[in-house]
Amino acid sequence: MDAQQFCGMQNLGHAANCSCGLYAIEEDQFSFVSPPSNFQFGGERTVIVNVNYSGFPANAEAAFDYAVDVWASVLSSNVPIVIDANWTSIGGGVLGFAGATTYRRNFTGAPMSGTWYPIALANKLHGSDLEPSQTDVECTFSSDFSWYFGTDGNCPGGQYDFVTVVLHELCHGLGCIGSADVNGALGSIGFSGDAVIYDEFTEDNAGTDLTSMPNNSATLGTALTSNNVYWNGALGLDGNSGVRPRLYAPGSWDGGSSYSHLNDATYPAGNVNSLMTPFLGSAEAIHDPGPIMAGMFEDMGWTFNSCEISNVTIGTQTSCNPATNQYTQEVIVTYDDPPADGSLTVNGFVFTITSSPQTCVLTLASNGLTLDCNVSFTEASACLFSIDDAWLAPTACCDNLRLVSVNSASDQIQIKNFGTCPVLTGTFQLCNDGACATISTMTLISGNIFLSANATLTVQWNAFAGANSSGNLSLHEPGALLGDATKILDFMQWGMTGQGEESTADGAGKWVAGTFITDLPPFNFTGSGINYGVAFWDGVTPPCSIQSLTTGTQSPCNEPDNTYTQQVIVNFISPPASGQLSVHGQLFSVASSPQTVTLTGLDSDGLPMNITAFFTANTGCALTVNSLFAAPLLCECPGDFNGDNQTDILDFLLFLADYGCTSSCVADLTGDDFTDIGDFLILSSLFATQCP
Predict the structure, then answer these.
(1) 3 state DSSP class of 303
(2) So what's the pLDDT on residue 469?
(3) Number of separate helices (H) and strands (E) present in the chain
């Protein structure tokens, strides 16, 4: 593989074709070719384009960014494209000029061997950056003209549309440029013996490939100035309804314009393919590369997103099916030039691409919600169409959800489906004291969000205020607003307020105003299912539970006996009426929760402590927390006879020397004035102990 620098200091002699200029015509055209129909500035892109600006005013940069985004919306590449853009005085009626900074040939992934590719295209085909130390396109724009920097195509008379000029020049830098030249009567193509990819698709009026003609010959020179040079790539022809696109090839060679443009007479101002002609009139705006250029780029190896979804129509909707609680919705998609691979997606449903217009049938849950419609192709993500609030789903026809249990201590709520079909419950809402949340946002403890008939699910709602001294809980259909009596499915209330959503439940016939469970939490509230009202709810004291163990104050190590104390905070509900609280084997009288107990006489050994708490009258009401806290280090160092802050083999040797001592013994660890087997056992237990 090798690289060829066509422009700048390493130019090999064909400067006219390395930077193709666009010339200004002082004649108002008052024409506008709008961007591709699906183009939305800043939308999702399949290529990244980075621009290094030099000398640009802010309004010129903004217009340049818009033009870059038009190209980014139709090209695909896994390799970012980097552009150097310069703003300076040019003169000579040239609006701007551009070219690829480097060409590469014979790289891995090149479709044609012995052929030069502009670096941005070479990178795309190779799959990674072949020239990471340099940019891909260099372009220069004249500061001498009266520019229109708007992006709406409404260019006034006497001004030149800057977006159009940037689109044109970037097209050259990305590949719309050949290597042909005419010197005197002799025509030539190629550099260092090889043509560029653009040259491989050019032919004369008779259909003879220009690259097959003798190089540096009058034959080739005549062809290049014949006013009859055409593009013969299959996709370029498709973009021109099967007709060969005609290139600009005037009778006199026009360096910088001949051969690397479309013919201006064939594609005049206002024509959808007029962007790449060599001249631009004032008040002429072209914001679409055009179908011919799209085909030419694809012939050369670019992936060009010419796909267009022109319309989406919402078709027939069936009613809710009681057996499944589902309905079907037709969506009719009209499109052009879909990608050859991949699928059509509608609201996440995947369909095989057939022909336009294509009818897609979605099977959805009946939930009464308004749905948006989002259509796209998996292999052309920029080809998309969206409709907000496209249709309204029918309401559920087989669900019959009820609250059956509420644990106001653990914040767990049980719901049962008394209906005849499964229900997707994720968008149903629970509301408590003015706060609402969907079931899908809660922690699922048991059961399934897709709730079968006669099945139950339990969720934990951490924001549930049920442990307060008063409160209420209501179950609502999807999309319900707080206080919407038509959407309330079930309701319960406890405490002494008589407020909250009671009036809502009363209005919906779910409750009788002024009645509620007067017992205060914590309780399990258990309902009888399909019935409503306070008469069908009972407050049941929840079972004993130690819910958490946390740490309080820890004392430092006590020097006389190397012990310490540790506070443990025990949080529990429904303790037994008799017995004691056991924490790490130490017993305490039961008080109110949370209860703080102090563990005493713990060994200062620096080790993590596993703590178990339980009630002696109900040993099953227990909780163990591993490594709840760590003990402090020893503050005294028994067994360290040589004073090196550890008990090791040297201390054992000193012990043996003192063994049998009967008075003032150095190794007396028991305090009985003897050094004997009792001291040995203590020393053995202390072996390898580290001291502070």
Answers:
(1) strand
(2) 58
(3) 10, 46
Give pLDDT, residue 524: 81
Q: Which two tokens stand for residue 65?
A: 């960014």
Cβ neighbours of residue 109 closer than 8 Å, sequence gap 6 or more: 125, 126, 127
Which letter does DSSP use for residue 291 in this model?
H
* Phi, then psi, of 117 in degrees rounded to 5: -120, 135
Compute mean pLDDT per 10 residues along the chain, 692 residues long, and list them. 36 37 92 88 89 97 97 92 96 91 96 97 97 96 96 97 97 96 95 95 97 96 97 94 96 93 96 96 96 94 84 94 87 88 93 95 89 89 85 83 86 88 87 85 92 92 70 82 74 68 77 77 78 80 88 88 92 92 96 94 90 96 95 78 76 80 81 82 73 64
For 101-143, strand residue ranges (E) read: 103-105, 117-118, 137-142
Classify residue 194 by its DSSP letter: B
Beta strands in 176-238 (DSSP E): 181-183, 186-188, 202-204, 229-231
Q: What share of the chain is helix, strand, coil (3-state, %, to 5)?
A: 15, 35, 45
Cβ neighbours for 178, distance < 8 A, ≥ 6 positions apart: 17, 189, 196, 198, 199, 202, 259, 260
β-pairing, 20-25 vs 279-281, is parallel
CA distance 218 to 503: 97
Q: Under DSSP, is residue 149 helix (H, G, I), strand (E, B) or coil?
A: coil
Rounded to the nearest 10 degrees, the angle between the axes of helix 677-686 and helix 649-658 is: 170
Please state which architecture CATH assigns to domain 637-692: Orthogonal Bundle (1.10)
Distance (Å, whole) CA 402 – CA 415: 6
Q: How far apart are CA 96 and CA 165, in angstroms?
A: 7
- Looking at domain 401-529, its CATH class is mainly beta
Cα 613 from Cα 616, distance rounded (Å): 10
Write the burial class of residue 82 (CB in 10 Å: 0-12 exposed, 13-18 middle, 19+ buried). Answer: buried
pLDDT computed for residue 7 by the predictor: 36
Rounded to whole angstroms, the Cα distance separating 434 from 483 reads 9
Q: Tokens 């012939």 — which residue? A: 299
Residue-wise burial string across 233-247, b where 16 or more C-beta atoms lie within 10 A, e elsewhere: bebbbbbbeeebbbb
Is the separation of the CB atoms in 333 and 343 below 8 Å? Answer: no
**CB-count burial class (<10 Å; 0-12, 13-18, 19+) for 270:** middle
Task: Give the integer Cα–Cα distance in Å for 495 and 469.
Answer: 6
- In which residue are the tokens 């009778």 written? 251
DSSP-based three-state secondary structure for 313? strand
Amino acid at 203: E
Q: What is the DSSP letter of 244?
A: P
The closest alpha carbon to 291, from 121, 100, 37, belongs to 37
Long-range contacts of 596-600 (CB under 8 A, 24+ apart): 596/552, 596/567, 596/568, 596/569, 596/570, 597/567, 597/568, 597/570, 598/552, 598/565, 598/566, 598/567, 598/568, 599/565, 599/566, 599/567, 599/568, 600/563, 600/565
Contacts of 675 (CB under 8 A, 6+ apart): 655, 658, 659, 660, 661, 665, 666, 667, 668
580-583 and 608-615 as β-strands: parallel, antiparallel, unpaired? antiparallel
